[in-house]
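Re: folding output
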Amino acid sequence: MLTFPVTKGPGMGTITELASDERRARIALACMTEPGDAVTSGLVGKVGAVATVGLLDSHAVLPGLSPVESGPSRLPPMGLTFDAVAGELPLVQRVWSASCDAATSFTSAAKGSSMIAFARTCDRLTVHLRGPETRATQLICPEGWEFFGVELQLGAYLPLFPPSGLADLNDALLPTLSGDRILLDNRDWEMPTEQNVDVFVNRLVRAGLLIFDPLVDEIRHGERPRAMSERTAQIRFRRAVGISRRKLVSIEQAQHAAQLLAAGGSIADVVTVGGYYDQPQLARAMRWATGHTPGELRSGIPFVAF
């Protein structure tokens, strides 16, 4: 399923506003999607053409990564290529890239980090600031889309876009200008590529637009300066990370357990090593954090985006 932004001219409305009935909505869908798009057809069958146009016209997630309901209708995860390397800058945890050779469904697992992401198809490129994810989300990546981005170190964030306001796929979409430029803080910036995105991040740091709170790691491990109250520490942590310390700990615990299960660890061993009380508690954690059961993770889910 492809999603396109709408450029509004004088007197024009959005595609959602113009597609006011089923006939007009189906005409709009014919222009917005590829012929025979099974994902779009499935949505039309479930919610109708008008509602489907509304979903496509939304920028709630990265364009091209559309939330879908879990269940047997999910597409087989066979066309997604994902790669990640450790970041070379102090504030970057890793640099990642992905591409979709075929329409592909996958799970974006709960995660505590924020990221700067870029999505590209044909001649369109969009820039997203994304916060932590407190639950798993099933997504579909359509054929032909490419993505890359940086996952920031815990405690690194853009003060202009607090992570708490970006949580759970509530992305901030940065304006783009002609000539491959990005508008940020009333300044235009050169659009980076996968190869030089670290330079872009470095420039943000030098401009004071990307900062790091050095106390986050201490607070994360239950420590804080003596002069700082517990409440002040909690507020400071949430400001920099976007979620509470308690929620972050539960996400990291679930991530660790999921990775052990995906590596073939027995459920009983993961309960013990992962610090869970019993198997039902582990199963509940895997459901909200990965969208899968422990058994499914052990059996070899093709791809989960941790």
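--- second protein (sequence, then structure) ---
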Amino acid sequence: MNSYETDTVRQRARHLTRGRKFNADELQLMLLWLLRDSAAHGYELIKRFRDLSGGYYSPSPGVLYPALGQLEALEFARVEPSGNRKNYRITPAGQRHLESHAEQAQPLIALLKHAAKKMLWMSQASESEAAAAEATGWLPEFVQARKAFQAALLADSDPDHAEQRRIIAILQHATQDILKGPTGG
């Protein structure tokens, strides 16, 4: 994940718990991502969002259909009538747009997938952490370490500049280690 993706995920995560979750451009990118493999009608797209996010996010028809209309106006999607429904299919121009904006689309999709896993953890952990670990693949220690990290930052939310620099160095080092992945690079 590059710095844009890291910043985007961090900013989006802060806003997922209140109000509008995505702006119009972000919703359009995610719709193109959902249409990349197969055409779908509006309700099916709402269901795909809900499935991808584990029920956390499903745009209302009042948000979805204007976004689909905009994709059609931009010629990024076309409508294929199917009985009483309109199926939307990504066009070559839409595919090129998605490919050229993959750096913005991937963190948004990753965020929805993370929300799904987090919701699954929370629902399973109320029964047992072992069940949550099996369902999500997250070790209980992994979740505890993340919570401890957040608590540590909240506990010292007014550090002086020297302490801020120390924390910055720690976080930058940890970020680089995480981004290297298990193989070290």
